[in-house]
Amino acid sequence: MRVILVGFGNLGRGLSRVLVQKASFLHRSHGLITRVVAVVDEFGSVVDEKGLNLNELLKVAEKKGTVVAYKGGKRGKLALKVIDDVEADVVYDLTPTNIKTGEPGLTHIKRAMREGKHVITSNKGPLVVAFRELDSLAKRCGVEFRYSASVGGAIPVVGLAKKLLAGNEIHEIRGVLNGTTNYILTRMSKEGAPFEVVLREAKELGIAEKDPTLDIEGIDTACKITILANSLLGMNARLKEVKRAGIARVRPEAIRLAQEAGYTIKLIGIAKRGSLEVGPKLVPLGHPLAVGGTLNAVTFKLDLAREISITGFGAGPKETSSSLLGDLIDIHRTLGG
Question: What's the topology of domain 161-313?
């Protein structure tokens, strides 16, 4: 399959490394041969319709900071032109998330679909802003649309629900969907340290961003629960409809009292028809959602299987590449590969 990568930051480079490492496995196990024919970053693009040498491209991009420095690279905002002009089967949109407008990813995805190209994205922005529009456009254009990496990183939340649990009706989805907040709450529960102290340490370790507002105020989790509600519960929910509270007011004494009663406190996103919510919740110790560190976890409440949970790593280029690659394999299979 011929692939265009739009976005060559941590995720784009991580996926490229995995495509190199897994090339023989993909061919042997799935009959899939992947050629990356174009890469676009914030400075420009590089195109080779015979397939780029990803090892060489990675070395140049990491040394020079852009794919433009690679042979044949062109400077300028060329994403839409590349999507229009370069013959490819799949477009990955791995651009930064913008939850207000969905741009530039939203325009990239629409253009790719209208050009008859399948789309895979990790970008929450377009999915939060225009999920129904994109889902309908994909169907009208006869292309596949995958977004597993937008929720849960390496955890196949969407795939599990859509494929393996297809015979079930989903009554409710609950999830620990943000590694930063989970790390902070885990440290607070184990050491009794105040929120402000643990947050500062998380920033120093690189677990939290310099501005961790999206995480600690529950906005990132709200985005993910909105995506799950729309994709798995058939809703047409908006981010503003999520009742949301963050973790800044959680105090060590509250966590201690919860532990004495056999509970822990986690930032939980909850989606059920007619109700979307994010906030600190009591979770029984030993429950699948009582995960520590930066782990994510999701529990489905179902009519037949009753309750099923899945746990794993929710962030990191290598981990997220698991979902990005899984989506490519899924499209390959769907097309009869």
Answer: Dihydrodipicolinate Reductase; domain 2 (3.30.360)
- Indicate if 161-313 has the same CATH topology as 2-153+317-334: no
Domain ranges, ordered by start, for the chain? 2-153+317-334, 161-313
Estimate the share of the chain in helix, then strand, then coil, as percent rounded to the nearest 5.
45, 20, 35
Angle between helices 179-191 and 195-205 (to 10 degrees): 130
* Sign of torsion over alpha carbons 152, 154, 160, 163: positive
- Does the pLDDT of residue 336 top 90, yes or no? no
Instruction: Please report, for residues 14, 72, 118, 158, the alpha-carbon distance to residue 3 in angstroms, rounded to integers and kept in the order given.
Output: 15, 18, 10, 22
Active site residues: 224
Instruction: Tell me the fold of 2-153+317-334.
Output: Rossmann fold (3.40.50)
pTM of the predicted model as reported, rounded to 2 decimal places:
0.95
pLDDT digits (tens, 9 = 90+) for 82-99: 999 999 999 999 999 999
Closest CA to 181 of 277, 242, 249: 249
Q: What is the pLDDT of residue 133?
A: 98
**Using 50, 70 and 90 to split pLDDT, how confident is the model at 315?**
confident
